[in-house]
Task: inverse folding
């Protein structure tokens, strides 16, 4: 095996950092060297699980032997670390979002563009095998011209109210993933956004100034249409489906279950419920993100999702927020 | 069998008239007496198939022995015949729409309300066994509180351009059915409508002043949401699906196929395509419409869909048309 | 409509007779003239529902205006009525079996062969749309050469013990339908039968000298294989499936449900249970049997199933019975 | 992590050895130390991929630091290596079969029983998540009493004729897996076997003295029934299904596909074909076999499949072979 080793540092030692560290451990081409977290014990624990050292972030950016940085720290720190990774010439995989406001995001994006490095953003759904197969089938012309896209995306249960208060709202925190999927599959700039929504799941969410249920319609510059539907709660697990309708057919990505075992009894023919939440549903996808960064780092290929994708999805969230407030279709060019 | 016989006259002798006449022939409680059509030979042909007489419409309305009238003539004549049925005290099943404009519709509705008769409107989908089971499951509380409704409705192929020119447009001609399904399932007044759409199937449809693809979002007065999606063309037949999402679960009505036979070969596991179009898909539903009118006539029960439902759906079509033109959400109380 | 009218008499006035009478009423080409039953009131009731006369059987066979006889009386009378229908030159649809013993069956078959009339046997499954589509797909070469056939056939609940005592046993009473389906689809003489079975559902069935669960393997003369599996009880309704495996693919006929509505909740994704029993599952098939007889009577075409098919299936039941008793494969040429 | 490290040696360096070595590499509790193969370069290549040493087998059995041996060499060598592992006190995972003849197998089983070590046999299907869920559901009483079991198992294409000649025949080479699944799920001794089969796929298989298509019926000591169906070729990939029918319901394990993406077009609604063959279908299962051995080695738990299971399945293959030759049901107690 003549493939080079990519020396990796992870900033953050929370749940997602653990998922990525485990993926790194399974990939012989990636060596986890450092873990850093403001909670030193958390960093120490994760580092020791993988034979890495627990260090402060300055050590990471100062060490020329580090090829790549994975940013899985709190959202407020993403933009700064992203900029430091770019200016120190390190490949970077940054969890989304870069920042909750567009200005800060734009500034970071500008820095990365000024210091080109392999820069991947953690839009995990682009790495999901079923969604990737759907994307490939569209590109292969399986459905002719894609005309309408329908994305249904529902969480099993809302996050704590405190989380919601700092989340930027449903469009920035939850639908942001769907905006990215829409952009990825439509493969064309969005021209306008109409959003409507309400509070159906928990009045406390409304009291916190947010909504928990939403329907959005996107129109692309050429006039194609996309519907996105979100709910913060289901009775049955994580609901993640995509329907791509085109002139020559339709593609449907459906929910995954733990196994395909079917039970038939008095009540009917029962398939398992959808997988519970994102860690279960997108487990394979998380495992592929670092490999994608490795490819970008070693071959110069484009990551499946980049800082630019993060920026554009944020603009859609901002447009949706404005549309909901003003109850009208908002043009993307109204958004900074 | 002590059930009374309902003497029926059919106005119109086209395709749908034939479907209804066949349903009448299978129901021993219904006697088809008269058929009337401006094309005398057509009326004669249909009448002779069922042992009925071909007459002019005045004969129908003048004959006290006629209990019920089925209006399946051209759209422009619906309102007048509906009014005549009401004023002559006959039960009536009227194909939709009552009229293409709201004022004419409202006038006819007022006449019917002033002369109460059993008045059913031909919204066939309310009679579909699968949709009816979905409605019953909602009412039985199977999904708790209904929160969002998603209706996907696509025709296999667009009608001729000449038809489109006189159709009133996609919202009045095609989505009107989905508006009715939405009203039926949401069971609550609609507060506002947002519509977007475009021409993706055939530029000639655009040149005729219409669209062929549309996405609409309805908001009910209590804030619940409904998405409706239409296309005038699929590669695979008639696409008619409903998804009702609620606090305690989800119900999905899916496409019907001719049989459930599955073939597995090199290309994969293949189920039959959806049934081709409405006569195939809603064959059972058409067969039930006259029975529903019979029940209303003989027992005084309310028909599954009434002239009022026809009027309200038309208002939604008008609101959607205005929304598309003005690219904003339109409140229903803006519509007459 | 220049199609001739077929004047029909029904012998028997039980549940199946009612089903057939209703089918006759829906077909304008068939006129039900007589009903006969040893229970005069039952005959009277059915006759009056359809404007027919209640008569004794001699009247039926003596009336030259009667074109066709439907035999739905008790099994013990089938053979005699079948012979009388043939010798009086009437088309006949006989419920299966012709008789429970092979000798009596053979005698009746010989009489019919000596007096050729349109003679259909009530193997309803040949008329089922899904099974018919499977048969057509095999004949169209969809799966290349058919190599193995698997038939799973389970009743929702066992019949009363008294019925079982007079039924001839599971192979003659229940699997006889599957033997016919196997013969129909394999379209080649069966060479040998191996049967095994046991009592799992109800010990009383064993005490009555019968089994309630069975597995059979048929081998055709060219060496192809067929597996048939029966149970007298399920927890979930009528289980009727066929899998045809061939060199170029596989066809699977699956269970039917009342509607295709799917519910998703905490327990999973739930489709309706299979239709409850044969009247629900094969309702369409029953409705087609008389039409098939009409075609045979009016055009001389072969009915989908004939007296010969009844005889051959009975030989398979006899071979299975012997195989079970002797715990070995039995060659068909050992059976009379 | 206080879990002990299990030092592993692999005998054999073919395809399956590579699969197991990769699984070992992903498990931090397992250290691959040695690889041995009669083809030294093959051993060298595999060893170097994983930082192990290429050695002769004597070195493996002489090294007290080796805790476990994985036997993936040619079938003819399995029994001897299994015995050596047992007598040198090493845990062992042996690919199936132990030997092709019962006597040799019995001798090896006796040696293992005399020198108790953790001994796992490579019946990969017991480790498949879907089948394991089916087993767990049976044990949880989901279907009440299991009454009949149906196993359909078809390969995508036959192996080379030379392989077939040395394989021991379909029952020993292919159906052996299904015999093990049947024993595992029925959880009760088999009393008798009836087998029938033929040559439908390739006459050359018949000329080599084997069959390529088979149907078998097993009867347990308490009288329950199991059907197994094999074909050496499909048009659509690897067909691996199980249906467990019981007094309270039915469980069905169905084929796996690469993704669940569905395409709908003119021809119908198309799911992906089943995964191609065993490496794809049972990839997860292979990855779990070493973990199961680790558990047995470290905790003394029983492996999911043992040498005893290997022996008993071989007896079923022998009984099936005799049944096919003599065209009768063979009692297991006739087999040594």
Result:
């Amino acid at each position: 095996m003549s493939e080079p080793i990519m020396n990796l540092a992870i900033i953050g030692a929370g749940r997602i950092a653990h998922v990525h560290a485990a993926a790194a451990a399974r990939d012989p081409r990636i060596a986890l060297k450092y873990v850093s977290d403001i909670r030193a014990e958390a960093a120490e624990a994760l580092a020791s699980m993988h034979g890495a050292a627990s260090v402060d972030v300055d050590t990471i950016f100062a060490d020329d032997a580090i090829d790549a940085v994975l940013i899985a720290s709190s959202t407020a720190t993403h933009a700064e670390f992203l900029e430091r990774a770019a200016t120190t010439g390190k490949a970077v995989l940054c969890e989304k979002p870069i920042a909750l406001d567009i200005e800060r995001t734009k500034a970071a994006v500008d820095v990365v563009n000024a210091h080109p490095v392999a820069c991947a953003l953690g839009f995990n759904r682009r790495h999901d095998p079923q969604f990737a197969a759907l994307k490939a089938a569209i590109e292969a012309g399986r459905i002719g011209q894609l005309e309408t896209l329908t994305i249904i995306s529902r969480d099993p249960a809302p996050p704590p109210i405190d989380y919601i208060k700092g989340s930027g709202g449903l469009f920035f925190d939850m639908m942001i993933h769907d905006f990215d999927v829409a952009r990825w599959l439509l493969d064309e700039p969005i021209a306008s956004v109409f959003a409507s929504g309400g509070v159906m799941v928990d009045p406390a969410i409304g009291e916190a100034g947010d909504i928990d249920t939403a329907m959005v319609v996107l129109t692309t510059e050429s006039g194609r249409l996309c519907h996105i539907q979100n709910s913060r709660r289901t009775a049955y697990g994580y609901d993640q489906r995509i329907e791509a309708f085109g002139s020559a057919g339709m593609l449907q990505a459906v929910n995954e279950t733990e196994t395909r075992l079917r039970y038939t009894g008095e009540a009917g023919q029962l398939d398992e419920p959808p997988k519970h939440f994102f860690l279960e549903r997108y487990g394979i996808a998380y495992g592929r993100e670092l490999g994608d960064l490795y490819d970008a780092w070693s071959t110069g290929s484009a990551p499946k999702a980049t800082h630019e994708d993060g920026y554009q999805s944020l603009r859609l969230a901002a447009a949706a927020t404005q549309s909901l407030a003003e109850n009208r279709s908002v043009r993307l060019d109204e958004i900074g």
